[in-house]
Amino acid sequence: MNNLFETLKDKIRNNQRVSDADALALFESNDLLAIGELAAEVNRRKNSDRVFFNVNRHINYTNLCVNQCIFCAFSKEDGEEGGYTLALEDIREKAQEAVAAGATEIHSVGGLHPSLPFDFYLDMLRTIKEVSSKLHIKAFTAVEIDYFSQLSRMSVSEVVEALKAAGLGSMPGGGAEILGQEVRDKICPEKISGKRWLEVIEEVHNAGLKSNATMLFGHLEEYSDRVEHLRLIRELQDRTHGFQSFIPLAFQPDNTRVPGAKGVGGVDALKTLAISRIYLDNFQHVKAYWVMLGLKIAQTALCFGVNDLDGTVIEEQIGHDAGADSPQVISQDRIIDLIRKAGRTPVERDTLYNELKVY
Ligand code: V47
Ligand code: SF4
Q: What is the model's pTM?
């Protein structure tokens, strides 16, 4: 065991923070098993052997988008073949299906639609709540919130208040990509800056809503960009404590315009999940999003510091448009089985991590 791992073991034992230089050294190390062991120890201390999942359904309300991020195979321009926008009645039906399948959460995001009024988004939330007031709506990224603020000429906090009043319960973690501007200028030049993403999320947390944070990795970024991203997220969490889970998203390359893109291998995926677990000492949960990782790597990630497998999802589009070879939906039984066969205890949670059932 070399010096790096001995030093980090000591730091973890003494509840000391892992530095940016430590995180970079871990990314540069090829000792995947030693990295995984450290991450598993950090997770054991925080979450014992419990692994969370939830029963949820995704609704991507539109794929029309005024931005053209080069990593995105989901978005279409207005008038382009394959573009769609769900009517409120479609959204109602999908929410009804979700309730019938036992879902407690609707996860809803979409493109930045060129012409829908702000009222559409309020009506969408109200429509879902009409189906069941018990459904938790986790919707809209910081990118959408900033767009709504321009659209409605309201401040971010006014937008958030209006959305909350219409039924918004919390926010997912998308749109963060890599927060460093140099990478953003290459992969998503029209998208809000990393600085703005952080500002919007800070306001959202200050308005009393929880969110997640993501990191899209495996495209044009360097390890140092990942470390900077993790640092910016950790610093914001120190100020607000509003993040629930961190979700590294493995880039899916098909139908995208990222030059030379090859996709993320199992080693890089596990390493990135594990280092996120080790570095983000102020996060309770690290989630393996099986849609982008595939079920086998997502399950294996449970031995690399991960304590959450997201949920049943139903009808995922963003990753599958980009070639994800995972299923569109998995059953609750399948998730429970994956967790059990990793020797861990499955716990169904709601969106806010209240425990609903221990299996
Ligand atoms: O923001 C887009 C990413 C995100 C691709 O908070 C891609 O619980 C991989 O944020 N390959 C949306 N990723 C998904 C997301 C998410 C998913 C599950 C759970 C939660 C949560 C959040 O998907 C986007 C973008 O970063 N994305 N294109 C692609 N080709
Ligand atoms: Fe639009 Fe989001 Fe796709 Fe970018 S990632 S093009 S903002 S839908």
A: 0.97
